[in-house]
């Protein structure tokens, strides 16, 4: 028989759910967050770059991963998916706790999502909440609405019922809705009530973080997944995402009652300039956010990859501000 998911799920004991505010206040705060994302001028915020992971990235180094946020797939259906060899036990990602703990310990924002499998929507919402309730108001919540393994796909009323149940269970937290344009036009009532997380790729090429992905904002989305073949310093391929806002706006999605607000802008020191290739072919480059060694090799036409050197000694492990060299350049 399946194990008791409340005992063998991914609940964290150290988090205590906050008292639940009046639902009207939460709805107003959620609307404020959505409005802030929709109408804030571009110069007023810096978009956040991050990844989403699931049991397929079991064991990935989340702590050292270069990302502003990490969204973790935690539950599927009502527990019918069972593949212990791939870190999923009766619908629960068995590596989710570690992933989320490492993300928080390294200063990243966190999110969690449930994969819809087309069963009873209230039962699926209950399963999601029961296994993740201690993350509520700490993580952005999301529903993954796709066609695979989901016989209800295309039934927007299913989405409404799941979302309504989550708002009820959480005392007023409004999940994001992850889907793709192929799902059809998202009904206006869902767009008005929940943040959209849209998946659409320009191509399947390998890429690092992009500041302006193809067709960004075309659907009024709060977040865009723009690559399923992304490269970050500790794992690839991986899904890459751009959240169209700052950390305080992320926090409002996670907890509409938090009263999060923008902080005073900080002065960012300019990064040292990179040294172009010398006559001997040497290169010295200061790593910027979203860059990869592969991308530098393409940019400078500097091959092979083995001729690049990082301070860590591993060309797959580097951080913003590291000075990397090619053929001993610099």
From TrEMBL:
Biased composition (Low complexity): 259-282
GO molecular function: lysozyme activity
Region Disordered, annotated ranges: 259-283
Protein name, per record: Glycoside hydrolase
Biological process annotations from GO: carbohydrate catabolic process; cell wall macromolecule catabolic process; peptidoglycan catabolic process
InterPro entries: GH, Glyco_hydro_25
Record lineage: Bacteria, Bacillati, Actinomycetota, Actinomycetes, Bifidobacteriales
Domain of life of the organism encoding this protein: Bacteria
Keyword Hydrolase part of the UniProt annotation: yes
Keywords: Hydrolase
Pfam families: Glyco_hydro_25
Gene3D superfamilies: Glycosidases
UniProt key word RNA-binding: no
Family recorded in the similarity comment: Belongs to the glycosyl hydrolase 25 family.
Organism field: Bifidobacterium olomucense
SUPFAM superfamilies (alphabetical): (Trans)glycosidases
């Amino acid at each position: 028989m399946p194990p008791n998911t409340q005992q063998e799920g991914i609940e964290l004991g150290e988090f205590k759910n906050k008292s639940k505010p009046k639902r009207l206040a939460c709805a107003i705060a959620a609307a404020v967050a959505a409005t802030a994302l929709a109408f804030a001028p571009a110069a007023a915020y810096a978009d956040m770059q991050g990844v989403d992971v699931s049991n397929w990235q079991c064991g990935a180094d989340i702590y050292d991963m270069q990302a502003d946020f990490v969204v973790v797939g935690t539950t599927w259906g009502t527990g019918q998916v069972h593949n212990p060899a791939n870190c999923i036990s009766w619908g629960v990602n068995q590596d989710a706790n570690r992933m989320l703990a490492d993300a928080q310990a390294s200063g990243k924002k966190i999110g969690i999502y449930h994969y819809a499998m087309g069963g009873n929507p209230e039962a699926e919402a209950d399963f999601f909440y029961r296994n993740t309730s201690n993350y509520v108001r700490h993580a952005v919540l999301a529903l993954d609405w796709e066609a695979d393994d989901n016989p209800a796909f295309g039934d927007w009323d299913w989405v409404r019922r799941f979302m309504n149940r989550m708002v009820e269970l959480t005392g007023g937290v409004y999940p994001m809705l992850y889907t793709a344009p192929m799902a059809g036009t998202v009904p206006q009532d869902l767009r008005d009530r929940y943040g959209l997380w849209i998946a659409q790729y320009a191509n399947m090429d390998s890429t690092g973080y992009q500041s302006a992905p193809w067709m960004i904002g075309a659907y009024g989305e709060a977040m865009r997944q723009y690559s399923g073949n992304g490269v970050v310093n500790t794992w690839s391929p991986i899904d890459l995402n751009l959240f169209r806002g700052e950390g305080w706006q992320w926090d409002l999605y996670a907890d509409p009652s938090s009263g999060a607000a923008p902080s005073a802008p900080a002065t960012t020191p300019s990064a040292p300039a990179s040294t172009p290739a010398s006559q001997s072919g040497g290169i010295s480059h200061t790593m910027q956010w979203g860059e990869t060694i592969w991308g530098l090799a393409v940019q400078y036409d500097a091959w092979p990859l083995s001729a690049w050197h990082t301070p860590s000694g591993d060309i797959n492990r580097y951080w913003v501000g590291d000075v990397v060299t090619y053929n001993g350049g610099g």
